[in-house]
Amino acid sequence: MSTSLSAPNRLASIDVLRALTMVLMIFVNDLWSLTDIPQWLGHVERGVDGMGLADTIFPAFLFIVGMSLPFAIENRLKRGDFRGQVFRHVLVRTIALLIMGVFLVNGESIYAAAMPIPRWLWNPLCCLAFICIWNHYSPNAPTALVYGLRGLGIVALFALAFVYRGGTPGALSYFSPKWWGILGLIGWSYLASALIVIAARNDPRMLLGGWLIFVTLSLVSSAGLLPQIIHIVLPEPIAGGTLPALTMSGVLTTLTLRYYKKSEKPIRMAQVFAAAIGGLVVLTVMTRPLWGISKLAATPAWLFICSAITLTAFLGIYWLVDVNTKGRWFDIIKPAGTDTLLCYLMPYLVYACFRLVDFQFPTVLLVGGVGLVKSVALAFVCVWLTHALNRLGVRLRL
Question: How many folded domains does the chain comprise?
Fold first, then answer.
């Protein structure tokens, strides 16, 4: 969910956009605790043609993953990695995201009476295990300590999977990938797009072709015309096309930006991006009558309008941060952009601490505008805790 690139080979605006998106994700994920708030802030239910603020956050993450991909892969190649080594890194990273996604998803359907631990403890224990396994330990850390903590995290995940029981009293279920979760969906989209970027070797025709393939899959899948063999060969998040198409939109954005930045044609670049945004809006208008705009159904119209929204947001941030050097304005949320995965896990740990000490927010802080301020404050607390843990040497790197 974040990259480790050298300063000359990264755009500060990508980190800022990632940080803003992470803060918004924590904010909208806390809206369940509030009442009497504007409906447009939340998710739109399945089967309804529409989109709330919360429905734009996940696609923005996928778009940002795509924007970072060319930088990340190029950086590894410049360090001397062969393409096979880059592919192995991509595969390991994908597996890590899938594992984390599946564990957190299983926490949604726990049957507590059949478990040796309370329901509320599942997610924080998973998160602590993730941190033990995937923490970026200091080179000076004792080897025994590093392997000990990683081993402890692996054993903890196996133990949690073994004792897991979900479902209902009459139909208990065991640990399984019920769906891939947010992190797992990001993992599949990252894998599909990374393979194309590795194979394309910066060839714009291949990258555009990859985007068109996924858009076609999205259209065909929404029309119910996707051959069954595709579902057998490819996992659903890739076969559906919509999610990797969002990631490839980010890849194409980076490719276009770098090309026009290198050729020093800012006016032409602005025209191309304006045309791209306009084209995406037109595609939204054309496809919405067919399948509507729906995050849960991953419709093409949702793909096109969210790509347009995220691209527009990025261009505004790029102009502010990289062109006018106002990046310091966003320093307060910087940890959410540089250690996004750890920040994503923070709410699970914060909620667990509240439960551990039996803390509950007063009702007045859970209603209307005051409640919204509380959710914003919670997001900033998670960012601050991420920063504090970073200073203590806790940094997640896949």
Answer: 1
